[in-house]
Amino acid sequence: MSAHLPILPILWPLATAVVLLLVLRRSVAAQRAFSLVSVLGLIAVEVALLGRLSGGEIAVYRLGNWEAPFGILLMADRLSTIMLLLASVTALAALLFAVGERDERRERLHFYPLFQFLLLGLNGAFLTGDIFNLFVWYEVTLIATYALLTLGSEARQLRAGLPFLALNLAGSTLFLTAVGLIYGATGTLNLAQLSVLTAAATGASAVVVQVAAVLLVVVFCLKAALFPLYFWMPDGYSAPPAAVSAFFGGVATKVGIYSLLRVFPLAFPEQSPVVGEVLMAVGVVSMLVGVWGAVCQTEIRRLLSFHIVSQVGYLAFALGLLTEAGVAAAIFYMVHYTVVKCALFLIAGVMERVTGQTSVKKIGGLLESAPALAALFFVAGLSLAGLPPWSGFFAKLAVVMAGFERREFLYTGIAVLTGLFTLFSMMKIWHQSFWGEPAGERRAVPRVMYGAVTLLVAFSVIFAAAFQPVQAFARLAAAQLLAPDRYVRAVLGEGR
Amino acid sequence: MELLMALAIGTLFGAGLYLCLRRRTIQVVLGFALLGHAVNLLILSMGGLRHGQPPLVSAAATGYADPLVQALILTAIVIGFGVTAFLLVLAYRSYQETGSDEVNLPEDQHP
């Protein structure tokens, strides 16, 4: 059984989706229960995988036992298990929240199977060992995303759906072009083998490899919603129901960052330094543009969507440093921020539910009428802004220290400054919606919605309290990631 | 042969890109379909163009055509077909809902 552990995170949501579609089609209550139980089981599987890989083993799973590099293979290491767990934990919270929403019309339109397909695509992308399958899993993720985004067909969703789809489709086209070029230049699509072959390419092949690398950077930045390729995101992420937008905002953009972390140090060791410089510059601009965009917004979930651009900028900056400290900071930041961002989106969902309004200007006095919500927002909001003692402080500290270590003083200074703007925009929500005179009606909210938010906020607090072990683990994952020859040996065997 | 393929790919890319930049959804859909074909041809020629060779190696064969690119293209075609179908339905639903065929509605028509 343990030999097949690396493929279980892919098979699990697939099987769940099939059962939901075929067996439990008629009963929404059964679908809710089964989805939740299934995600809990998935978390257990991934914890087992983490237990096996935390020592530094790189698990390689050959489908159909075809020898690498000829067959399709899955590859799991510390980083991929971290990502798997992040996706499942946020999925659990989002599903709990969706159960609380009791939106039976959408639930009848196969909300739960679609959610499992989304999880399937993400898990596949985190585990794949070759670049063409990365494309395929991107597509699985995207198709589920398109469907969830437009599920329910409200005019607002449809309007947001078309540009979202068009831009992501453009990204997919570029991705496929890059895959074709890589295959033409090197004759392989296996990431570990590419590590050897892209460095050895000469003449025209070397130029083609460079073009492909540029295309891949563009595609991954588009998926990660980095400046200037973020236009598809704020509308798309604020249109669907809160549970969906929370999961999108928490995890979906991280696939781009994960791909940058996975593909460049491993498959393009020669091009990585230049890519790193570009990512740092792009990241810093993203930080500022995103946070300025957020400051101008009044609709809570749109505001939070602009913060994604800014926060992803931190990730790009930290991983662009390409030092062990930098990549470790990026991983820790990603863990913290996925959880916190998802929590904030869910809090926004509760705020909308309680007041029936989506704009901060029309909501007031929540501190009095929903003190528990105010406490949760206080923790999550300050954590996003990077104030001690919350997890965001430690994450930002790690990024800033990694930046200073590489003597990138200007960029790091801007990163610190961005925290101030973030704080300002969180204060804006606090000031307008939680303080002030209570305005408008108040509606009761199911307990389970609070449960979903509390789960995520508790994780954020745990990351802050257990900062050192988490950071140490991120450091190990980064060290593993920056030593591509270990992957080459694990996949292709010794002596090649 | 290579020149012909290069010209075909270039034309398809150009036409597809032009259509993608139009305002009406149906043109954008067609544009992406053309871009998909362009990329598929690109992948095909990246595997090396060989005339009259079998895709499977046998004892009697003197050479072979790369079968992997054909498998890649097949996958890409299936995905492209699904996404195009979804895009068409979405475009139609959006037209029903808003009465407009434009990708980006003017600001005053936003909610």
Which CATH-level-2 architecture of chain B?
Orthogonal Bundle
Question: What portion of residues of chain B is helical?
Answer: 55-70%
Using the CA coordinates, give the radius of gyration of chain B. 19 Å
User: Would you tell me the structural class of the helices and strands of chain B?
Assistant: mainly alpha
CATH class of chain B: Mainly Alpha
Q: So how many helices of chain B? A: 3
| Poorly predicted tracts of residues of chain A | none
Largest interface (CB < 8 Å): A-B, 29 and 33 residues
Order of helices and strands of chain B: HHH
Rg of chain A, rounded, reads 22 Å
End-to-end C-alpha gap of chain B? 53 Å
Largest sheet of chain A: 2 strands, antiparallel
Mean pLDDT over the full residue set of chain A = 88
Count the DSSP helices of chain A. Answer: 22
Could you please say which CATH topology of chain B applies here? Helix Hairpins
Compact description:
The complex is a heterodimer of chains A (496) and B (111). Chain A has helices at 8-22, 28-53, 78-101, 104-108, 111-127, 131-150, 155-186, 191-200, 203-224, 233-238, 242-252, 254-267, 272-296, 300-320, 324-355, 366-369, 371-385, 391-405, 409-434, 447-465, 467-481, 484-492, and strands spanning 59-62, 73-76. Chain A is mainly α and 496 residues long.
What are the key terms here?
heterodimer; A: 496 residues; mainly alpha; two-stranded antiparallel ribbon; 22 helices; B: 111 residues; Helix Hairpins
Protein topology:
The complex is a heterodimer of chains A (496) and B (111).
Chain A: H1 8-22, H2 28-53, E1 59-62, E2 73-76, H3 78-101, H4 104-108, H5 111-127, H6 131-150, H7 155-186, H8 191-200, H9 203-224, H10 233-238, H11 242-252, H12 254-267, H13 272-296, H14 300-320, H15 324-355, H16 366-369, H17 371-385, H18 391-405, H19 409-434, H20 447-465, H21 467-481, H22 484-492
Antiparallel strand pairs in A: 1-2
Chain B: H1 2-20, H2 25-46, H3 67-98
Helix pairs in contact in B: 1-2, 2-3
